[in-house]
Amino acid sequence: MEVVCLGILVADVFAQPVSALPQPGELKTTDGFLHSAGGCAANVAVNLRRLDRTVSVVGKVGQDSLGQFVVDELGHQGIGTQWIRRSSSQPTSATVILNVRGEDRRYLHCIGANRDFGAPDFDPEVLHGAKILYVGGYMAMPGFSGRDLQTIFKSAKQAGLMTVLDVVIPAGSDTAAEDVLPALPYTDYFLPNNDEARLLTGLATAHEQARELSRHSPQTAVIVTLGHGGSVAVKGGRVVETPAFAMDSIDESGAGDAFAAGLIVGILESWPLDFTLHFAAATGASCTRAVGCSAGVFRFQEALDYLKQQDISLHKTPVPAQ
Prior knowledge:
Layout: E1 3-7, E2 10-15, E3 33-38, H1 40-50, E4 55-62, H2 65-76, E5 80-87, E6 94-98, E7 106-110, E8 132-138, H3 146-158, E9 162-167, E10 189-190, H4 194-201, H5 206-215, E11 221-225, E12 231-235, E13 238-242, H6 255-268, H7 273-286, H8 300-309
Parallel strand pairs: 1-4, 1-8, 2-6, 4-5, 8-9, 9-10, 10-11
Antiparallel strand pairs: 2-3, 6-7, 11-12, 12-13
C-alpha cells in the first residue's frame, strides 16, 4: 500500500444543478442525485485510485446503512477499508450538496461519527509498507487533537513516511495556530486554502500566509491554494506560484481533494515541486468537469497529456516567483 488516507468520511448526496433554490413551500425538480462516499480521506483515496495508486483509508463511520454504504463504495474502488472503525453512539457523517448554476455550492452537513474519531482508532500497523500518510479534514474531527496529530505524524516520520496535512475549519469554530504549529516540524506538505491560512495566521495574502507558516517549519512545503487563483508555495525561502487551469465547470466540489491527490502522485514520482504543483492543479481543475468529487478527475496519463497540451513539461522548470 503506497498511501494511507486518514480523516473525515462522509456519505454525500449531490443534487444535479438547478436554476435556483426552491422558495418556501415550493417543489423544484432536478435531473438527478448522486450518492457517493465523500469526505477528505475518501475523496483523496478515490482520486489516487484513478491516478493508479494503491491506498488504504483510516476513519470512522456509524453502525448504520450509510456507514456500510461508505465502506462498500470504497471497497468497490479497490481501496483498503479494514482500518475504518464504527461509532457506537454517532450516525455516519453525511452532507447534502445543493448546486445552483452560476453560484457557489450550498451544504447541509452532519458531523456524525467524525466527532468520535481519535487516536485510539489509529493502528500504527496501517503504516507498514506505506510511503505517504495523508491526513485530511483535520480540525473537523473534534475528538482528534493537535497532540494526536503530532504523535501520529512523528511516528510516520520515524517509520520513513512522507506526511501531507490538509485542514478543514468549520464556520464559527475556535481556531488557533497552536492546533497546527506543533505538528508542522513533522509535516512535509501543508495544504491550507487561503481562508484557512488567514484564520491560522491573521494575514491577508497567500504570500504572507505561506511565509508566516513556513517560518515555523522551514523544511515544510506550505502550499496555500486559491481556487481559481492557483496556489502559492513556500519551502525553505523559495516561492513557487502556480496558476489554475480553466475548464468548463459543472461542480467544484472536491477540487481541493483532487489537488491533494495530484500532489501526492507528484511526491511518489519524485517530481520537482514546480511540476508536481502543475500536475496537482490539472487534477484539481479536472474534478470540476462533472458532478461529485471524483467522476471528472483525470486519469494519470490524461493529466500528463493535458499538461503537454499546455506546454508544461517535466523537463521545463518554470522560473520561481520572486
